[in-house]
């Protein structure tokens, strides 16, 4: 029997293992998936070191949004340990001043005791416009945010605001790489993924139709199929 490939899955901001639930279930037959905890550190380097300390010597790596930032940091620190890379609904660029200002606004909201108000503000930018009133999906996202909590949210936003521009680092990636994006991703739009795919040698770009930023939740079947193909290639 062929040994299953270890697969580390990295969640996004305010997300936990629920973000990857359908992929974990759908890929168990070919991989050994594990969802990392990215709630304990306030820097990408700290998050990356924690994942590397838990990971085996060689593993496949997939990250969505903030998880994609951490995946890129892992590639900078220990790319010889990663055998396959998937970057979902993410960016290789640093925050713009406008993005940083929005993050600081959400941090201030949380610090004033209004953490519950963060998710409703973020949700419309995280999903396809047709799902902005999807109560069931909002409940899932709000549940993840509640589980992650305010303190971890503050740490995660600090880490995200401090991330570097990693575009030149992408040119040094020499492993099978999938770049995946929801067509209607408003948080990290398609051109950012076209840029990543153009910089990573041999990368494959997969666009998921009728889908926003939270692709693993919005289109789980399509995303799992893309990840399966990537793992088996």
What does this structure look like?
By secondary structure, this protein is of the alpha/beta class. It has one domain (5-95, 160-232): Rossmann fold (3-Layer(aba) Sandwich), CATH 3.40.50.1820. It is 48% helix and 15% strand. Strands 2-1-3-4-5-6 form a six-stranded parallel sheet, sandwiched between helices. Helix 1 crosses helix 10, helix 2 (44-54) crosses helix 3 (66-78) and helix 4 (97-111) packs across helix 6. It is globular, with a radius of gyration of 16 Å. It starts with a strand and ends with a helix.
List the helices and strands and how they pair.
Blueprint: E1 5-10, H1 21-27, E2 31-35, H2 44-54, E3 59-64, H3 66-78, E4 82-88, H4 97-111, H5 118-126, H6 135-161, H7 167-170, E5 177-182, H8 190-199, E6 204-208, H9 215-218, H10 220-232
Parallel strand pairs: 1-2, 1-3, 3-4, 4-5, 5-6
Helix pairs in contact: 1-10, 2-3, 4-6
* Biggest sheet architecture: 6 strands, parallel
Rg over alpha carbons? 16 Å
Order of neighbouring strands in the sheet with most strands:
2-1-3-4-5-6
Average predicted confidence as pLDDT: 96
What's the number of structural domains? 1
Low-confidence stretches: none
Please give the alpha-carbon distance between the first and last residues: 18 Å
Total number of β-strand segments? 6
Shape: globular
CATH topology: Rossmann fold
CATH level 4 superfamily: Alpha/Beta hydrolase fold, catalytic domain
Order of helices and strands: EHEHEHEHHHHEHEHH
Strand content: 15-25%
Q: Give me the CATH architecture, please.
A: 3-Layer(aba) Sandwich
**For this structure, what is the CATH class?**
Alpha Beta
Structural class comes to: alpha/beta
Residue share in helix: 40-55%
């Amino acid at each position: 029997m062929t040994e299953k490939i270890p697969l580390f899955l990295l969640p996004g901001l305010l997300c936990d293992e629920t973000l990857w639930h359908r992929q974990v279930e759908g890929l168990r037959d070919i991989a050994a998936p594990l969802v990392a905890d990215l709630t304990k550190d306030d820097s990408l380097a700290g998050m990356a070191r924690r994942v590397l300390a838990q990971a085996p010597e060689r593993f496949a790596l997939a990250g969505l949004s903030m998880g994609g930032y951490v995946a890129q940091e892992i590639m900078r620190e220990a790319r010889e340990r990663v055998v396959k890379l998937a970057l979902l609904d993410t960016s290789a660029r640093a925050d713009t001043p406008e993005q940083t200002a929005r993050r600081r606004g959400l941090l201030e909201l949380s610090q004033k005791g209004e953490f519950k108000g963060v998710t409703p503000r973020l949700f419309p930018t995280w999903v396809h416009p047709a799902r902005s009133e999807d109560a069931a999906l909002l409940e899932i996202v709000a549940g993840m945010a509640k589980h992650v909590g305010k303190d971890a949210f503050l740490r995660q936003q600090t880490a995200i605001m401090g991330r570097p521009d990693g575009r030149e680092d992408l040119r040094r990636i020499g492993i099978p790489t999938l770049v995946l994006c929801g067509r209607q991703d408003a948080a990290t739009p398609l051109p950012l993924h076209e840029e990543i795919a153009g910089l990573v040698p041999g990368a494959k770009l997969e666009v998921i139709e009728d889908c926003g930023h939270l692709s693993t939740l919005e289109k789980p079947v399509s995303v799992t199929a893309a990840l399966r193909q990537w793992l088996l290639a």
